[in-house]
């Protein structure tokens, strides 16, 4: 059986609206926890205003933030998934859903040509929206994940070296957070994603996925990295900066770290802030038309973090 393209179009349109309007419950719970513990006067005011705004957005069915970011898609397919019309039809459906949501939700048309500033007023153009793919060994389903991420600031990269060690990672992390807060480069409190390793482009991808595709409270499957995530969350909230850069103690709602193998001589690192409007929505579509909506992208499965040539389950089956 194939997944009908009309089903994909319908779900993609629904996800665009959900991401723009409804805060994921994991982030909302983290924000409420931050608001309950915040002591800074202005930070407390901002946190409460954010919570009130989210309720109003959901009630009025309007985008939770005037700057709706830049919509992007992550698509994960089970190995047996088939799409009516193929992958070209899938990408056309996602581009059309983005364009229709821009006028329908509405979203702010944030995409322009870098040189000519050509603006189609629909967030679609050359390379926009981005569509990234992942795969799983089993299943005939497709997961559609949309993320509306801020597209200007709240991101930094540095080529560290093995001799910099954990202390060097901490220094760059804190340098980035202070710059984000003091220069208005991100809207805190944020989910912070850190990418370690890979080539420069993969390092940036790892950090961006860590910030947007992990839910608050999740931890890396490597227990040593999980310990670092806990430490870095506490460290980020120790610098005396709170909501929107005001004095406070809640700058980081959570910190997620993802790694990839890199060149022996380097240790690339990227830092990404997924701002206080943590806009994401997820749905799984089956060939029989069933649709399951959720807020956890469940992107970083054991298969996505595999570090062997063969997938272990394939090895077990062969034995």
From TrEMBL:
<keyword id="KW-0456">Lyase</keyword>
<protein>
    <submittedName>
        <fullName>Fumarate hydratase class I, aerobic</fullName>
        <ecNumber>4.2.1.2</ecNumber>
    </submittedName>
</protein>
<dbReference type="GO" id="GO:0051539">
    <property type="term" value="F:4 iron, 4 sulfur cluster binding"/>
</dbReference>
<keyword id="KW-0411">Iron-sulfur</keyword>
<dbReference type="GO" id="GO:0046872">
    <property type="term" value="F:metal ion binding"/>
</dbReference>
<dbReference type="InterPro" id="IPR004646">
    <property type="entry name" value="Fe-S_hydro-lyase_TtdA-typ_cat"/>
</dbReference>
<comment type="similarity">
    <text>Belongs to the class-I fumarase family.</text>
</comment>
<keyword id="KW-0004">4Fe-4S</keyword>
<dbReference type="Pfam" id="PF05681">
    <property type="entry name" value="Fumerase"/>
</dbReference>
<feature type="domain" description="Fe-S hydro-lyase tartrate dehydratase alpha-type catalytic">
    <location>
        <begin position="12"/>
        <end position="283"/>
    </location>
</feature>
<dbReference type="InterPro" id="IPR051208">
    <property type="entry name" value="Class-I_Fumarase/Tartrate_DH"/>
</dbReference>
<keyword id="KW-0479">Metal-binding</keyword>
<dbReference type="GO" id="GO:0004333">
    <property type="term" value="F:fumarate hydratase activity"/>
</dbReference>
<keyword id="KW-0408">Iron</keyword>
